[in-house]
Structure prediction request, 603 residues.
Amino acid sequence: MTDILVVAELYEGKNRKTTLSAVAFARQVAEATSGAFDILSIGEGANAAAQELAGFGARKILETEIAGGYVAENLAATVAGAAKGYGVVVAAGTAYGKDLLSRAAGKLAAGVAPDISAVRVDGGELVYTRPMYAGNVIATMKVTTPIQFVTVRQTDFEAAAASGGSSPIEKFAAQADEVAKRLRFGSLESVKSERPELTEADVIVAGGRALKSEDNFKNVIDPLADALGAAVGASRAACDAGYVAADLQIGQTGKLVAPKLYLAIGISGAIQHLAGMKGSKVIVAINKDKEAPIAQVADYFFVADLFDAVPALTEAVKKLATAG
Amino acid sequence: MKILVPIKRVADPNNANKVKVAPDGSSVTSEGLEWKLNPFDEWSLEAALRLTENAADKSRVGEVVLVSIGPSDATQTIRQGLAMGAERAIRVEGDDAQLDAWQVANVLAAVAKKEEPDLIVMGKQVVDGDSNVVPQYVAELLGWPALNYAQLLKLSADGKTIAAQRELDTGVETLEVDGPAVITCADRILHPQAVKNGVTPDDFAYPVAEGGRYASLKGIMQAKKKPIAEMSMADLGVDAAASVQYIAFELPPARSGNTVFVESVDELVQKLHTDAKVL
Ligand SMILES: Cc1cc2nc3c(=O)[nH]c(=O)nc-3n(C[C@H](O)[C@H](O)[C@H](O)COP(=O)(O)OP(=O)(O)OC[C@H]3O[C@@H](n4cnc5c(N)ncnc54)[C@H](O)[C@@H]3O)c2cc1C
Ligand SMILES: Nc1ncnc2c1ncn2[C@@H]1O[C@H](COP(=O)(O)O)[C@@H](O)[C@H]1O
Prediction:
């Protein structure tokens, strides 16, 4: 029997969908070991966020309201305190999840299985699968400490659906941490967009260095994304050059995505980029160079100048949509 | 300002698709691949060097100490870091392929207690293990704040406080941290103006780069003479047990299917619509 604690990820007082990937993991492990899972809703807006999570089958929801923006040091002592008595503590493998869980694990000298893609129970023990070497090696591993900390890949643990019911919500007292005084949160600047979020989108239009400017990115990539109802993503080169915000970077350093359709436009397909998107179902490349390494993973490859091809594609997609 | 920079060697990351696993799945073999400095460590070393220099007159105003846990072979990678400009290094004897994050963190924390640096600037992850766990462990073991994923660092005049920006999944966070602290860096730390130390003129712009600085010939020559202290984990009084156990390794399944080269936009749309059924 393994009891699991899910650490919810809050943003602007609401749950991010990432939390539901961690819930999916928790359900799977609870079921396989006849255990139960609880959820810790922690941070600013924890109370409202706890209500949002009441219908997912948790035994109970712990709620700790902590004011101020995100810094792990503000939350980690409480997470570690709440973790006692559980076999596994889990969050999504986002910047938030990795930063916070490793810090909390450190307080308990607990082992971490980071960014796992699968879990199974073998002889009563949890065995994790995780990609390494930018996705070029798949490892199986265990955590050998009494409490195990785990972060899960959103691309491999599909967001749990609501299961009905209403989990009871309990307050859990925040635990102070001296070290938190040494960080002062200022602000969190987010680029707001009407488009779907990158990690949740069914279709992604990603642009690379070949776009050459922020304006080109807006004039060429955005209209195609809008015609497809897609999210916009980018390579590191495009983010570094400031064509788009850094949080649109896909790859080993950026976000992991696995949409139904991924269009790589003017992206060469470096190993570090492939690491973030090769789980996509259908991959389309538009590139002048038919030898570009993106060909290793592309299902469809249009050898063309993107400045001709993409506007034409945008028109064709619109026409298809009106033809219904 | 004294900065400790933990570094690790990795099999050439640009050829990560050429690593193999032993036939019995017990280990990863990177034979035939060159050892490189973990790129994230290289970027952090670049940030540490920028924090401790006057870039305008190319003089050093602080000290960067490298630390690597690895076998004697790892010395070659340490020399690369010294050639970039670090003043000296420490090698702690250990099997870098076997030690886990908890053990590595305990060693790094022990070295930090001995060296008492103002900052530890390190990679957010090693690109072989792709963990992103060690920095937070180290910070916790030392009771220091951890500033993960920095894209901008600005040192206060007294060198004790850092005004920073860091990259989260939801945007860019602005915050202030009192040292000593652990810092890890995001890609954007290599921006021409991402690091300000109050010594290098504020309007100074480094050249655009995708990695850390190249070692000059002079740097390479000098690196040969820079000291590398060697010690064991026992010397440091570290005896941490492993917290995870790797059982087996395999190569990922190849993506099925061949690439279909299309000749026109119409053909692409038609194929996505009728064959792939994604439009
Ligand atoms: C540790 C580390 C981590 C990294 N993490 C990431 C990461 O998370 N994500 C990431 O993306 N990268 C990452 N990188 C960088 C990566 O190695 C590549 O440098 C980067 O992905 C290249 O971006 P790009 O494909 O846009 O640019 P390029 O490699 O320059 O490719 C541009 C492509 O556009 C094509 N092209 C040019 N003009 C046109 C045109 N008019 N029409 C059509 N095609 C055209 C070219 O043929 C070329 O294939 C990382 C690197 C390191 C070392
Ligand atoms: N063997 C090692 N020696 C020195 N530093 C290391 C070692 N392993 C990891 N590190 C440091 O810890 C960082 C994060 O590693 P990880 O959490 O394992 O992904 C790396 O980027 C290095 O700065």
About this structure: Chain B touches chain A through 81 residues (CB under 8 Å). DSSP finds six helices and 18 strands in chain B. Residues 182 and 221 of chain B are 31 Å apart (CA to CA).
